[in-house]
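chain below, 239 aa
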Amino acid sequence: MKINSIFNIFVKISIFIIPIFFGISDYLIERFIFIKLYFSIICCMLLVILFLSLAMEGYIQWKIIKYKKNHQLVKAYRSFISGYFDDELRGIFNFLRYSEEERLTLFLYSSSQNKFYSVGRYSKSAKFNNVGRYVIDDENEYVYNVINEQEEKHNTKSPSINSKKFNMQSKSMYGVPIENKGIKIAVVIAQSMNSDFWKSKDKRRKLKEKVCSLQNKMIEMNINPNTLPSEINLSEKGL
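prediction:
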């Protein structure tokens, strides 16, 4: 369990338990000499912990609300442009004759936010074609290796096992970055349920060649991944 998760649990337990302690303090004082002797010190410590826990819980809830709002914006933005990119990925998918065990996903990369936004996906498998996450911000995930490292390095770090750790339904993946004027603005992540699929240099070469055509189209569209549309922008587009 991650430290953040443990800390969040501690915060929630503190908010729940400490008020109960004050509610039954008279009962505890009568039965426990230690609490009676140090009651004022214990109260001060618990009040500090309670205040900090409430402040932290407020911050956590604010982050959740902010994330949900951001998620809805990205989801709406994706619905506005994903039809085009879904078609482009389908064309690449069919040209390379991938099977129902493969999937292609296009992620825009915002360097200003250091986050990836899913804006296109295609697989012949209906289940594999589902979008579970619209935003990726965990720097331990493979997409960050594709953006930050050379191909030889990020390819050796691509997951080759069932990737519960990465929250992706695949046994192997390979990423191809998309650049604009030397700056990486997006990544195409190719996944397969075959653990050996992307070991083939020929498969990787053919995929990179097709992604180049997608890169040219994205440059022509002048997409700026560092600008997330506002609610006003989306409402003007009827979203």
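The beta strands are 102-110, 115-122, 135-136, 172-180, 183-192. The longest strand covers residues 183-192.
thats it, cya
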